[in-house]
Inverse folding.
């Protein structure tokens, strides 16, 4: 792994995809420079930013001379190149379970509640953002909970912190923004409770970021 | 890798996520049993199927004694356990580019045009399915094309067939169902043209599956 320069993370404090990557950087103990991208000022739509991130989204990680985008690709890269504290189990079937959990969040939950989608639902179609988001998020939570019955220990997959844990903490926080009750999801509650106690997760939280709203 | 029993793929012929996994099984030369799940008969919502796939989606791969779900998790598992023809580059930065391309399709394109989402947009919100799908699919295509300017050779990432290729072929086919023109996406056209010539990709196509509509 080359370490010529400190990695730079383009992030928005409340973005759950950015938060996932912050969790991984924190767990891996990587020192990085934080650069806030204000989604409400549409800084992610600037041409110069889109050269780094063709989808025009956060996060982007500048590392080893290139700009990496898409949170799952970034997390896998960090896990492959920073050997400290592996975030995927060594057993291939457990790796598959971990990635299954990651993808439930990454492809079935978060895409349904990102700002661009909610704006189209609310502004253009005049539908309830909250009803739309709840509908999809409950589906994902129910599936995640069902899988945890097979996989969970202290964390999502046994007692090892994994990429799934890096994703579930931000996703549960997003659910609370839509007033989604976690009552039915006891294992998720337990796992997230355990994760939230860890210093590595605390320093990656939105309110600990330099661009957080100070209210 | 244990091979006690032939893997079983639960698939729907036109499902692009199923098609991705069929591409990988074909590229890896894995012999498997095909079981059609008819989404229009809602077979994916059966309780017995949801025990295998908690999200109630296709595909599911029964392999090495377990049921794997989420296409990206399945593809990564197959690439890790079947060493023949690696579908991720050995260079970590190229692996990251590959996964970036995969996730543009998996998290930004396909989730916007799956049947459940289109039904909600069309049946419940009375909006145009085609307009909704086009809006998101063009964003993804434009980003994929921009990345290909850096990465493409004969295929999406150089001259090696990768997981990104397994995903782009079905996604382009889905785009054509929404009458999306690929005119602006010359590199995607070239790469997909090259892939479609390969026998491994031909046998994974929807019309070659046992559950394909015979019209």
């Amino acid at each position: 792994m080359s370490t010529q320069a400190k990695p730079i993370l383009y992030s928005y404090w409340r973005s759950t995809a950015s938060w996932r990557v912050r969790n991984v950087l924190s767990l891996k103990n990587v020192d990085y420079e934080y650069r806030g991208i204000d989604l409400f000022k549409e800084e992610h739509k600037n041409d110069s930013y889109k050269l780094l991130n063709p989808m025009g989204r956060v996060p982007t990680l500048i590392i080893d001379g290139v700009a990496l985008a898409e949170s799952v690709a970034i997390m896998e890269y960090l896990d492959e190149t920073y050997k400290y504290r592996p975030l995927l189990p060594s057993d291939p079937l457990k790796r598959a379970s971990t990635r299954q959990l990651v993808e439930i969040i990454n492809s079935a939950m978060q895409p349904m509640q990102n700002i661009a989608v909610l704006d189209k639902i609310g502004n253009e179609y005049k539908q309830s953002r909250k009803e739309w988001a709840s509908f999809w998020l409950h589906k994902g939570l129910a599936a995640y909970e069902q899988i945890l019955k097979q996989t969970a220990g202290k964390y999502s997959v046994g007692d090892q912190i994994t990429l799934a844990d890096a994703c579930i903490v931000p996703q549960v926080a997003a659910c609370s923004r839509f007033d989604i009750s976690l009552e039915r999801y006891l294992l998720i509650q337990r796992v997230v409770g355990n994760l939230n106690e860890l210093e590595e997760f605390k320093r990656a939280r939105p309110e600990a970021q330099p661009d957080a709203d100070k209210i």
